Amino acid sequence: MDIAASLIKLIFGSKADKDRKQIEPYLEKIKAVYPAIEALSNDELRARSEALKKQIADFIAADEARIVELKAKLELAETSLEEKEKVSKEIDETTKRIDEKIEEKLDEILPEAFAIMKDTARRFAQNETVVVTANDFDRDLAAAKDFVTIEGDKAVYANHWMAGGNDVKWDMIHYDVQLFGGVVLHKGKIAEMATGEGKTLVATLPVFLNALAKKGVHLVTVNNYLAKRDSEWMGPMYQFHGLSVACIDDTQPNSDARRKAYMADITFGTNNEYGFDYLRDNMVTYKDNMVQRGHAFAIVDEVDSILIDEARTPLIISGKGEDSSSLYTQVDRFVRTLHKSVVVELEDKVEADEQTDGDYVVDEKHKTCTLTAKGIQKAEEYFKVENLAAAENMTLAHHIDQAIKAYGVMQKDIDYVVKNGEVIIVDEFTGRLMIGRRYNEGLHQAIEAKEGVKIAAESKTLATITFQNYFRMYKKLSGMTGTAKTEATEFTEIYGLNIVTVPTNRPNIRKDYPDAVYKTVNGKYKAVIEQVLECHKNGQPVLVGTVSVEKSETLAKMLQKYTRDFNVLNAKNHEREAEIVAQAGKKGAITIATNMAGRGTDIMLGGNAEFMAKAQMRREHFCENLLDPEKPQDADPNAVELLLTEADGHGDTNDEKILAVRKRFEELYAQYKPAISAEAEEVRKAGGLFIIGTERHESRRIDNQLRGRAGRQGDPGASRFYLSLEDDLMRLFGGDRVSNLMDTLKLDEDTPIENRMITNTLESAQKKLEGRNFEIRKNVLKYDDVMNQQREIIYGQRRKVLDGEDISTEMHNMLRENIDSSCKQFLAGDVKDEWDFGALRRHYQGWLTTDADFHYTVADYDSLSQKGIADLLYDRGMQILQAKEVRYGAPVMRELERICLLKCVDRMWMDHIDNMDQLRQGISLRGYGQKDPVVEYRIEGFDMFDQMVDSIRESSIKMLLTIEVREAGKAPKREQVAKPTGEGYVPGNGAPGAKGAPKGQPVRVIKIGRNDPCPCGSGLKFKKCTCAQYHPTGNNGGEE
Asked: Model's pTM, two decimal places?
């Protein structure tokens, strides 16, 4: 920290001090009101929460009534277009006033609401049952949930229930620091909380408070397991107070159940489902088919993962495109014949051909692939085309680009795995398999061709939005995570979210050692193994974090030479993720995992008694013997898992097998629990959990998350990163200085440099990289904002149609505007002899004109005017529409207008999405002409949008004038223009390495001589080495 910053902190205090001063008054008020709440009976407690709901409802009742009145006025046929605009504006202003009044009232009742929720948690934790006078909500709940029973006029709430497949007993009461975190979340900020500090419990406070307003609270999780578990785990706390709770991931898209889930006071779900539901809602043809009711307040769990890591990920609903699987196969055969060259980074001002001698070049730093002139010539010869860059060969060039990217950038078992004949994406941060996700733009098909599995048909984009734009629609947004400060600038600039660090309940005593830097990867891995074995010998558990599945397995193979007593957690066995991570804190345990694998699972020192008891039951085949004593090996695996799930359950049952399983579980649990407590003390004495990082990530946040797994709730722990000069971050960002220092000191591969200065230097490099990545993401947002503004206009127009508004006036205006525009085009100028009457006649032939129209002599010119001809056409169009209305009736005519507009809007919008995507692909080239690509994209994008609006206008009115109804008095049904066939996302769209992404400063290109050591670290000369990275075989694109 520099001197100026130190002085500012000394005089004005730190940000943490300021945050604490703002929030502490709320904590004092909560503490002041809590004794009175604690003294209430159960019925009185629930009556207080009902009173709070009424306070809010009464406060906004007049404004709510006014909105109902205004919406009714909008639907009246006699309301003019000008009047409708005034009414719509008043609705918007009144809605905004309601939102402000709700926030005002929520701030006022916050202390009492938080005290109610805290005492509800206390009552459930300290009592086996909580008894209240039953109401209709309780009776309905008892019919669906086992934890509520009705006994006469009483509702009996048990303090245990099923959550995430397990019967859990409520045992949590809010700490003061959790009250602090709850205020942060309610205020629309990010609560940065250390591992084990209870983020899920903290969220109950603002969720309960905001749900009292009955506008809907969305709790967003990173996966559907957490969404379902948390809705079941925390749900009874809200349901006790008459608030409905649902999880959208328990329901099917576009279903009544999904719609009901969104109507609940509190809705849990994954970020993907929320985003896709928004897109689906804007593709429906009837309002009744929509599921979401608005975007009032959302709390995002693991907010850094969703709003930073996946922020630029476009959610895409796609329809069936052209089947070009045979072309992918042909292109794949061609690419296998090419020679690949790998460089650190291409020099900006030097032709690619001068920097490499391959057919295509892979830029490692930006993760791009480019055909060289030699490669282009080979392609033209192979496919027998004269010019690969010609317009007619765009499809072929696109397929080749995707194929070389599949070989040059996308790595098996790192970016994707092949399982059961399918290519499945591996999440970059967690190592989890992202089943159902597909790369877009043909990349997934190119990888399928590379791996020799079935190639799926390409898709056409029907609707798309990024998480950045989706979550910015919420009126209030907040989030929780363990590490957010390193991305503070991005959270503030893009989402308007400030970060507040929530104090820990107990002091953090973890030791973070300086990085140890080795000359080679081999030397680093040897040191890691030595550290692991030393910890293992002393009984200290170790968690080794790697950056990929491949490196986890490499390290595991090396460790096997010394011990087999370890677990490997990666994408290939992610089904056992929670089990393996839960036991990582056992005495002497060794766990190897990708950095973010098992995120969300706390590591308890000494192990987890529940998991140990169930693991022992598996080893004994206890459930198998119960189910089939004669042939336990034939027992149904699903039945075995169901029995194990019931092992730690508390629900009433007479099933003898379940009772036997519970009895055995209790015996084992009683056996392991004391041992675990004793073992936890031994682990603490040994130093707690030791975290070993094997490589620095581009983001400090990921490194901090790995470190944060040790030192939970005041436990001891330690962390250290072991690095080598051959690591990507070191190699790409300034490893030269350290390498020169090592050479000067004549250090071998087994001797490290350990110095805080090197750690600081690395973190500085990470900061620069984070800054660069943020600028790229911000640049992507500039592009996406153009599309988002257009999306809001189109979706707004659709919403008016779906709301059932009378759009006849708008359709008549469209007719007038279209005719005026056409007349200006074809009847331009003052010389009437040059007016193109023939073109005007042909333009409207069949719907407004006939062959007999617009045949004038020179003598007729004096009586002609542009306005007169336009009026003639408009009157003719209005006569056709009025005649139809007489034939079909006003209700059918209004529905026909909606059908025509919806169909044309949807068809034109889908084409526009593709056109905008094509524009974006090539717009970066404008930079060579000293023009800002973003400005050019905005200008051309809105020109294209205006053209689309003109097309919608003409197509809609033409369809309305020519459409006929088969059955009198009955309008045809609305139909979707295209049927969705899948959902996916574009990887790293605009991220570092994506086409068109800005580049960093030029750096040197690696030139490898035949007799130089291979950069892979094998120790062999380049000409002798056979590594896959720098010497790909035929399957990997050829030798360099």
From this structure: 0.73
